[in-house]
Amino acid sequence: MSGGYGCRLFCWNGVYDALAPESEPYSLPAPLPQWPKGKGFATGIISLGEIEVVKINDFESVWSCRLLSKKAKGAAFYKPVRIPDGFFCLGHYGQTNHQPLHGFVLAARELRAQKAKGDNSSSTKSQSSALAEPVDYTLVWCTDEWGGERHHGCGYFWLPIPPEGYRAVGYIVSEKPDKPSLKEVRCVRADLTETCEKHGTILDLESRSVESPFQVSKMRPCDRGMLGKGVSVGTFFCTSYLNSTKEVDIACLKNLDSTLHAMPTLEQGMPIDSEGSVLPGGGSNDGEYWINLPSDDSRDTVICGNLESAELYVHVKPALGGTFTDIVMWVFCPFNGPATIKLGMVNISLNRIGQHVGDWEHFTLRVSNFTGELWSIYFSQHSGGEWVDVNDLEFIEGNKAVVYSSKSGHASFPHPGCYLQGMLGIGVRNDAARSKFFVDSSVNYKIIAAEYLADENFTEPPWLQFMREWGPTIKYDSRSEIEKIVSHLPFFIRFSVETIFEKLPNELYGEEGPTGPKEKNNWIGDERS
Question: Which parts of the sequence are annotated with region: Disordered (predicted)?
């Protein structure tokens, strides 16, 4: 993992445009490294049990549009091409066209010669083929229903109708009204699939703009996280109904190969030394123990920390059914500084509010197990966060992405700027900018956990088993301090204390000491987004 990635962490009104431009394919700033030989990581093909899948990111444009409204985004839809012999298309790809072309769809082939290793399900004994042609297609929507508008080419969106006992896992887009060939796509046996859900909009044609409304969404497995078996196919969901609760009629894939052979091996990572042996391990956060700052002369030194010796702690885990690797980079900050409140155009630095001992933050690199390519980064931001595609990241020194850590609060962001935690111009500032203070996480890191490597005698450090709080509980007299601040403001910009309190985050009223990485929901589950 040290070979290529890491981050530098800094402290239509309805009108259709006939000339929708083609998005240029995206590539990382530098070539991928030559990964050390392992089992199945970065080999291009992943076994899911009875089928093998390959990632296809070579596309041929089928149909695209651009919406002239400043707030609306157009979309482009593509057919996968250069599919390897023996593999079959599972569906087409779509994305917004205001960004570089960056996506994939999976193609699949059936494993007939051998049964899947580690698959104890009865499905391997079934005589039914894992893949099957659809029996027909249903037309979901077409540009003929885009009445009164100018058209540059035609688009027809088809849902494959699977045979009994099978599920469609993607849609087909064509330029002609004739139904696509049944050989165009394959459906997957139902026991080899998982349920999926909509996640983010690709295209939204409202009813006031077209004779028939049309919505297209990205898809992700419902079953995610470290133990999840759901595998994203990379296809989209589309509907001509505006009801957002409409049942999703396609599925994603399921990884039934429990060996997770496509995950990186220890030879592709790095062992670490043990630390924290004096901390009580195991159990739960029972309030019996917590960590505090020292009471002697070393207190100020601990509060400031030491960037020269700082390391990030790495949790490596499978994602999306073992087709991706999540490299979770944990950062421990010994002290959280005071907050700065923004009241409209006025910024006020607080004295103590927001301060607390200990602060565990993280960001997550999601790497494709097909190619070893960085795909996206999750930026943790207080009680939430966001996934950012690789094409919207900043890079330095080849493929090292930049992660900005906000002043005092340590939330992470993909770009510099002021991010307001609040609403309507009132809240806590999160300021992020480049500076001389940084940590190169591609070098300064330690792998602390990789549960899928249990058979390789990987040992977690003792401090990771400390399930109590890494700091004492803090309560702030926020109302008193804010009342004093408001009383000194000019009358014409004065806000009521109640108005301010309604818009500030809960952390400013008091905060319990933070718990360690293993107590966080994303240790096993997926990131919050």
Answer: 508-529
pLDDT at 308: 80
Residue 194 to residue 252: CA distance in whole angstroms: 5
* Residue 111 DSSP one-character state: -
Task: Please state the pTM of the whole predicted model.
Answer: 0.80
The band of 154, judged by pLDDT with boundaries at 50, 70 and 90, is confident
Rounded Cα distance between 387 and 319, Å, is: 14
Q: Which residue has the tokens 């690789």?
A: 390
Nearest to 155 by CA among 136, 138, 177: 177
Closest CA to 32 of 476, 368, 282, 435: 368
Cα separation, 250 vs 141, whole angstroms: 16
Fill in the amino acid letter for 466.
F
C-alpha span between 123 and 271 (Å, rounded): 38
How far is it, in rounded angstroms, from Cα 336 to Cα 90? 48
Three-class DSSP category at 448: strand
For CA atoms 177, 178, 181, 182, give the dihedral sign: positive
What is the tally of helices (H) and strands (E) in the chain?
3, 37
What letter would DSSP give residue 323?
Answer: T
